[in-house]
Write a structure and sequence with these properties.
The complex is a heterodimer of chains A (258) and B (313).
Chain A (H helix, E strand, L loop, with lengths): L1 H20 L1 H26 L7 H33 L2 H6 L6 H28 L8 H28 L3 H6 L2 H8 L12 H9 L2 H13 L6 H25 L6
Helix pairs in contact in A: 1-5, 2-3, 2-5, 3-5, 3-6, 3-8, 3-10, 5-6, 6-10, 6-11, 10-11
Chain B lengths: L9 E12 L2 E12 L3 E5 L6 H8 L7 E6 L2 E2 L4 H7 E4 L11 H11 L4 H14 L15 H13 L5 E5 L7 H16 L3 E6 L2 H7 L2 E6 L2 E6 L1 H6 L5 E5 L3 H11 L4 E3 L4 E5 L4 H13 L6 E5 L3 H9 L2
Parallel strand pairs in B: 3-8, 3-9, 6-7, 7-8
Antiparallel strand pairs in B: 1-2, 1-4, 4-5, 9-10, 11-13, 11-14, 12-13
Helix pairs in contact in B: 3-4, 3-5
Classes of the chains: A mainly alpha (258), B alpha/beta (313).
Chain lengths: 258, 313
């Protein structure tokens, strides 16, 4: 167990080095949510702002939780690509012939990706503040919102690890997390779900992004959270556990180098 | 009392190794033994099953059947012990291209828990030994193929493995890098490690290995020292070329032994052992009749002949 931890720390260091050496990956990751933030606030915000949210600043405040969820999605592509690059190259084969805890390879990726995502979220929040986003609640609520977002990032990271392992090539790994972007938009992130057609609305209210976004929004700008927090945490745990088991199964199968 | 001479011990013992992917039989019952401190070459064409053999013996994939022991540890029940004593350099570059050469070596040293000071010293020593000091702090992605292969091998050596697997270590390298790699392998053998090498180059097996096994379509078709293998096929021949057809036919009469004449190329091929007295005898007889030889070539059998003869290709 101690070896597994020590090995995981070594692997985490490896992934952090990658991140520091190639900051473009992190910048690119932040670019997508920031682009949507600016697009929605400055171009669409004037017209599609939900009822009761008039003005750009109010709309920026409304969509920031959704943009933060989108940041976690943007990070999944980088993670899946980095896992697939490792798997298709020879380095993982080398690790597997060494006396190290196998889980450490994945743990290093997950740790590195979560740190990268959190950094991305901090940058996105800073830009959101510039566009007019204002949180109206206490420091404790900020921490609670951060905790939910980190849990969500952790869940999506494990999912992207599994997607990266399942991919046959680096190219297909980079496309695998794309459906998650659609989930981010078919939720409560950018418009109120009650404005959607019934079928889509039903989907939007029951998919995992909506309770996460609603909880974060409730914590940051006040308003009812209700059962959303519990549902959000449950979703995160289910996604994490399912993805972890899937990833472990994929990682432990015989590696076929062709 | 004199101490007994240390008997060579077995580094790798394999019996009845089998592996298939679906319908496709990759290894069809392999038996082999590698003595400690020797270089063993598994020689075969693409698709013969060389890489699969290495992957199984290096604990990367599971065999369908068969037994194997490495350094006395059982492959099926003690893979963790085996991982402590082996080092693997595959044919696919197993370096972290985003890290520098030094960082790659330090990563290995950390994973083997060498401790900071020893890790640094070991990395430095290997960089020096493999002539990578200058490129040590550049990302491995900027290295040439030959440099990446050297770094790969250096990473394998960080832990001082007893048994080293080299899967096609020179495939894709230019001739100069290939020679450098050969020299590195030759130097390694002096330190007493066991090397299990796969190659599709007969010259490489001939140069490096004490024992060679020929693998063809999942079966070992011959095993032995390079000399033993060369003796398995008919000996060499000399080839004489003449200036015109008349001289050629005259030469055949004078020499009066079975040979193969080629009227178009004006050549005569005679099976010989290649020994000097035999050659001298032939040339003296031709000289006695004033028959001019335009060209003489001596062909000794090499592993190519062995391989082609045994595989029937």
């Amino acid at each position: 167990m101690t070896t597994a931890l020590a090995d995981s720390v070594i692997m985490l260091r490896r992934n952090l080095k990658h991140m520091i050496r190639y900051p473009a990956v992190t910048l690119f990751m932040v670019l997508m949510p920031v682009a949507f933030l600016l697009l929605f606030v400055y171009i669409l915000g004037g017209t599609i702002g939900p009822a009761g949210h008039t003005g750009r600043a109010a709309y920026a405040t409304f969509i920031t939780p959704g943009v933060l969820a989108l940041t976690a999605v943007a990070a999944t592509t980088a993670t899946a690509v980095s896992i697939a690059t490792d798997m298709t190259g020879g380095i993982v084969a080398r690790f597997r012939t060494m006396p190290i805890a196998r889980v450490s390879v994945l743990a290093g990726h997950v740790g590195g990706a979560v740190i990268q995502t959190v950094l991305g979220m901090v940058a996105v929040t800073a830009i959101a503040l510039l566009t007019g986003f204002r949180a109206t609640t206490s420091a404790t609520d900020w921490l609670a919102a951060a905790a939910i977002l980190i849990l969500f990032a952790f869940a999506l990271t494990w999912l992207s690890v599994a997607l990266g392992l399942a991919a046959k090539s680096v190219e297909s790994a980079s496309n695998a997390p794309t459906p998650l972007i659609i989930l981010a938009f078919l939720g409560s992130g950018f418009v109120l779900t009650r404005s959607m057609p019934t079928a889509i609305r039903w989907f939007a209210e029951y998919q995992p992004f909506t309770p996460v976004i609603d909880t974060v929004r409730g914590l940051l700008i006040g308003g009812p959270i209700g059962r959303n927090a519990v549902i959000a945490i449950a979703w995160c745990l289910v996604i994490t556990l399912g993805s972890y088991l899937w990833a472990r199964k994929l990682f432990n199968r015989d590696l076929v180098v062709s | 009392m004199s101490s007994p001479t240390p008997r060579p011990t077995t580094a790798i013992a394999v019996t009845g190794l089998r592996k298939s992917y679906g319908e496709h039989m990759v290894l069809d019952g392999i038996d082999l033994t590698v003595q400690q401190g020797t270089v063993f070459a598994l020689l075969g064409p693409n698709g013969a099953g060389k890489t699969t053999t290495v992957q199984i013996l290096s604990t990367l994939i599971h065999a369908d059947a068969g037994q194997a022991a490495l350094a006395g540890y059982d492959l099926n029940t003690e893979p963790a012990r085996i991982r402590e004593v082996i080092g693997v350099t595959g044919q696919y570059s197993a370096v972290d291209k985003l890290l520098t050469g030094r960082e790659n070596l330090m990563l290995m040293a950390d994973l083997f828990h060498l401790g900071r000071a020893r890790a640094k010293a070991r990395a430095e020593e290997l960089l020096e030994r493999f002539d990578l000091t200058e490129a040590a702090d550049k990302p491995a992605s900027t290295y040439s193929g030959g440099m990446q292969r050297k770094l790969d091998l250096a990473m394998t050596l960080v832990s001082d493995p007893q048994i080293i697997f080299l899967d096609e270590p020179t495939t894709g390298l230019d001739p100069r890098s290939r020679r450098v790699m050969w020299q590195i392998v030759k130097d390694l053998t002096r330190s007493g490690v066991t090397i299990f090498l796969t190659t599709q180059y007969l010259e490489e097996a001939d140069q490096l290995a004490g024992q060679i096994a020929l693998l063809d379509r999942g079966r070992l078709i011959a095993q032995g020292t390079p000399d033993e293998l060369k003796r398995m096929i008919p000996g060499g021949h000399i080839r004489l070329r003449f200036n015109d057809a008349g001289t050629l036919s005259k030469a055949r009469e004078v020499i009066a032994r079975p040979g193969r004449a080629d009227e178009e190329a004006l050549t005569l091929e005679l099976p010989t052992s290649g020994s000097v007295p035999e050659l001298r005898g032939i040339l003296t007889r031709l000289d006695g009749q004033r028959i001019d030889v335009a060209e003489l070539t001596v062909h000794t059998p090499d592993l190519d002949d062995v391989f082609l003869t045994l595989t029937g290709n």
